[in-house]
Design brief:
With 158 residues, this protein is of the alpha+beta class. It has two domains: 5-117, Acyl-CoA Binding Protein; 123-158, no CATH class. It is built from six helices and three strands. Strands 1-2-3 form a three-stranded antiparallel sheet, with no helix packed on it. β2 and β3 form a beta hairpin. The protein is elongated, with a radius of gyration of 19 Å. Residues 1-158 form the FERM domain. This is FERM domain-containing protein. InterPro entries: FERM_domain.
């Protein structure tokens, strides 16, 4: 199945922007490590697109790829150093694992990870009323099964 490269690239950039700028709602259980992992995959995407080797990737600042709430946990000098050391070790492992992957494979991994940690990302809810009756309509184009527009069961409406 062919994908629309432009739309796919745009969606990746939208997810990335919303992640870094914290323009999304995270699941309650999302931990700092998961956010750092998303940043790491983003670094791989950047490196792949810019054709950077591992040495050049290691010179990038991890804080440019993670949300502000996670950055704020690394304000002290030793915390910043710990972040850089840990990210470099993980970056090497991920770089070696994904060396043969295409940029789309890496971006798809990023998007899937992002959608796993966000709650209802880009899901729209509407109440429609007709002839005195109302229904709850959900537009969820990223739903794993049957993406699209559907009527919500009463159990799904919060």
């Amino acid at each position: 199945m062919a994908i629309d490269q432009e739309a796919f690239g745009y969606f990746y950039l939208q997810c990335r922007s919303d992640f870094v700028s914290e323009n999304c709602v995270y699941q309650d259980s999302v931990k700092q490590e998961r956010q750092l992992g998303q940043g790491l995959i983003d670094m791989l995407c950047y490196g792949h697109e810019a054709k950077l080797g591992l040495d050049q990737l290691n010179k990038l600042k991890a804080k440019c790829f993670i949300p502000a709430n996670t950055k704020n946990m690394f304000t002290k000098l030793w915390d910043k150093q710990r972040l850089d050391v840990n990210m470099k070790a993980q970056l090497k492992m991920e770089h070696d694992k994904s060396e043969k992957d295409s940029i789309n494979d890496i971006k798809l991994r990023y998007i899937k990870g992002f959608l796993e940690i966000t709650q209802g990302y880009l899901v729209e809810h509407f109440k429609i009323t007709r002839d005195g009756n109302s229904d709850h309509v959900i537009v969820d184009i990223y739903r794993e099964e049957h993406p699209g527009v559907y009527l919500a069961d009463s159990a799904q409406v919060s």
